């Protein structure tokens, strides 16, 4: 059974979702009764008072060992209570998957309608969805592979970095105007159906102008790194969730960045490696937003 609930921004109310799209596992003698017969994935959605387009998701905890959430950008492991921000106007389907004893699971969904885009959190990245040739033209290639062995390609509303390995790498970037001391967050969807070894995927937000043939190293914000323990196997999700590269400014895994001067910075993505995934690393929905 599936039950959708529509919320409009500004209406402060709590709505419970009752047994939405619930799936279950039956007891099996082989598991000695340790597998749950069913898992209640219901959750409530509450607009956060005083915050624009921000919502508190609260799952019922009984019989739930693990919660996974999906706000439309791929599932991720979260907490029983999650605060989400939906800065752009639109209709969002929120999915909660609850995992119980023995791996039994249940799923519930709700819809949130965001009427107005938050002007303070608009996406400053142009062409971040790579939908059209005009979008793709917003990005400049940083040539780092002398032979052209590593390269970026565009297809299916996404961009993919390909490398034959042997440390071949390539980058793409665009200039963005930012405001002094304002905090921003960077994120994107990243995926690969197969893993790599001795491979990196790094995101920078620096003031230095990128130069052909020169590795960009100005203000690393986030990324993937097999040395740090991610991208060794298949992955899919927001980089802020699946990434493991530390932020140069904070020394922690964080996608937050701020700048000491108002002006132009360069959002740059650089990737390559020694044993690079045969399928490439694909990105879409690239965002840089004010907090």
TrEMBL record:
Keyword list, A-Z: Signal
Record bears the keyword Phosphoprotein: no
UniProt superkingdom: Bacteria
CDD domains in alphabetical order: PKD (cd00146)
Residue ranges of domain PKD in the record: 68-114
Cross-referenced SUPFAM superfamilies: PKD domain
InterPro entries: Ig-like_fold, PKD_dom, PKD_dom_sf
Signal peptide limits: 1-26
UniProt KW Transport keyword: no
The name this protein goes by in its record: PKD domain-containing protein
């Amino acid at each position: 059974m599936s039950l959708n609930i529509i919320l409009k921004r500004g209406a402060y109310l709590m709505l419970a979702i009752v047994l939405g799209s619930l799936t279950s596992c039956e007891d099996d003698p082989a598991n000695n009764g340790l597998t749950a017969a069913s898992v209640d994935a219901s959750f409530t959605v509450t607009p956060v008072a005083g915050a624009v387009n921000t919502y508190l998701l609260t799952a019922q905890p009984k019989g739930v060992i693990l919660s996974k959430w999906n706000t439309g950008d791929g599932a991720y492991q979260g907490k029983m209570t999650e605060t989400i921000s939906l800065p752009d106007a639109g209709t969002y389907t929120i999915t909660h998957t609850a995992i119980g004893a023995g791996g039994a699971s249940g799923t519930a969904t709700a819809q949130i309608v965001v009427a107005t885009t938050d002007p303070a959190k608009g996406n400053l990245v142009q062409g971040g969805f790579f939908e059209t040739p005009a979008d793709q033209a917003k990005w400049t290639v940083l040539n780092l592979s002398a032979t052209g062995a590593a390269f970026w390609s565009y297809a299916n509303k996404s961009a993919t970095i390909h490398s034959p390995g042997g440390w071949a790498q390539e980058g793409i970037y665009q200039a963005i105007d930012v405001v002094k001391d304002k905090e921003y967050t960077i994120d994107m969807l990243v995926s690969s159906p197969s893993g790599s070894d001795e491979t990196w995927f790094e995101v920078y937000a620096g003031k230095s102008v990128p130069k052909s043939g020169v590795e960009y190293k100005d203000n690393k914000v986030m990324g993937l790194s097999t040395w740090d323990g991610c991208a060794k196997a298949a992955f899919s999700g927001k980089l802020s969730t699946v990434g493991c590269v530390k932020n140069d400014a904070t020394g922690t895994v964080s996608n937050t960045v701020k700048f000491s001067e108002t002006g132009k910075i360069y959002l740059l993505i650089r990737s390559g490696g020694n044993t690079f995934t045969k399928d490439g690393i694909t990105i879409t929905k690239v965002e840089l937003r004010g907090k």
